[in-house]
Design goal:
89% helix; mainly alpha; 2 domains; 3 helices
C-alpha cells in the first residue's frame, strides 16, 4: 500500500512543527523555572511581609496612643469663649492702665510745682536758717 504524497508531506510538516513546538515548550518551561519564584522564596517573602505588617501594626497602635494623649491635652486648653473672656479682661486692664498713666502724668505736674518750694525749705533748714 502506497502512502499518498500529500500524507507523506503532512507527516513531515507535522514532525517539524512538533519539534519546533517541543523546543519552544521546553524553552518556556526553562524560562519559567528561572523566572518564577520557588515555594521557599514565596514562603520567605510572606514571612517578611508578615513581619513588616506586625511592625506597621505596632507603629499604628503607638500613633493611636499618642493621638489619644494629644486629644486629652487639647481638652484642657481654653476654648473660643475662654479666649474671648481673656481678650475682654485684657482690654479692661488696658483701659485702667491708661487711666493710671493719666493720673501719674497729673501727679508729675503737681510734684514739679511742689518740688521747687520744698527744695528751698530743705536748703533753708540745712543752712540753719541763714541764707
Amino acid at each position: 500500500m502506497m502512502v499518498p504524497e500529500w500524507l507523506d508531506l503532512a507527516t513531515r510538516i507535522a514532525g517539524i512543527v512538533g519539534g519546533v513546538l517541543g523546543f519552544l515548550g521546553g524553552a518556556v518551561l526553562w524560562m519559567a523555572r528561572n523566572t518564577l519564584a520557588t515555594k521557599a522564596e514565596l514562603h520567605s517573602s510572606f514571612e517578611a511581609h508578615g513581619e513588616e505588617h506586625d511592625e506597621l501594626n505596632r507603629r499604628l497602635e503607638e500613633g493611636e496612643s499618642k493621638f489619644a494623649a494629644i486629644l486629652a491635652d487639647l481638652e484642657h486648653l481654653p476654648g473660643h469663649s475662654d479666649l474671648n473672656d481673656i481678650r475682654d479682661r485684657i482690654a479692661a486692664v488696658e483701659g485702667e492702665v491708661k487711666a493710671l498713666a493719666a493720673t501719674i502724668d497729673g501727679l508729675k505736674e503737681v510734684l514739679e510745682r511742689v518740688e521747687r518750694p520744698l527744695n528751698i525749705l530743705v536748703e533753708h533748714h540745712m543752712n540753719g536758717g541763714r541764707r
